[in-house]
Amino acid sequence: MLDNPPLLKIHRGHARPDPALLERFRGAQTSHLVDAMDGRGAMDWQIKPMDAATASFVGPALTAFAYPADVVGVFGALGEAEAGDVVIVANDGYRATAVVGDIVIGLMRNKGIAAFVTDGLARDRAGIVATGLPTFAAGIVPTSPAANGPGEVGAPVVCGGVHVRSGDIVVGDADGVVVVPQDRAEAVLAALDRVRAAEVKAVAAVDAGATETAKLRAIMAGATVIGG
What we know:
The chain is an alpha/beta fold.
C-alpha cells in the first residue's frame, strides 16, 4: 500500500555549469550535438517548439516531475528556478491535460528563465508564443490540469526518452531539444568541433556540384547487384 507523498519535494545542491562553458554551446545546432554524442541526446521527436522563430536557447537544466493531470511540480520548478535555467518537466508523456499554459510561461519569462521543456502538453499556444519564451511540448490541448500534487523538483528525470539531471546542459532549436550531461561537456565540445569541420566540407562539396560522397561510393562498390 502506497503512503501519500509530500505535496512538493525539492532536491537542492546541484552544481550549475560555468556560464563561460554554457556560452561555448550557444548557437550549436541540435543535429550537430547529436552527431557529437554518437547519435544520442535528443528528446523524442514529438517535443517541438511552440514557435520555431523563438526556439533557440541554451542553459542548465532544472528538472521537475509533474504527476499526470497535475501541475504542482511545475509551480515548484517556477519557485526554485534561477535566471538562465531551462525548466525541464517530465510528465510521463501524459496526453489528457496540459501541464503548462501562457500565464505560467509568462511568469517564467518575467523571472528570466531561458526555456521550458516538457514531454507533456501545453495550452494557450497564442499566449505562449506572445511571451517570446522558448517553449517545447509534445502538443497542444485546451484541457486544464489540477494543482493537488504531488510534485518533485531537482531530482533526475526521464523526459522525452532522455535522462536529465539538474545542471546538465540543454540546447534547443527549431528541430528539437538535446541534453548534454554536464560531466561530458568538454568531450562533447571537442567532438562538436570535428562535426562542424566535416559539415563545412560536405556543404562546400554540395555547393560545388557534388553528386556523391566517399561513403556513397563505398556503399555502391560493396553492393550485391542482381540482374542487369
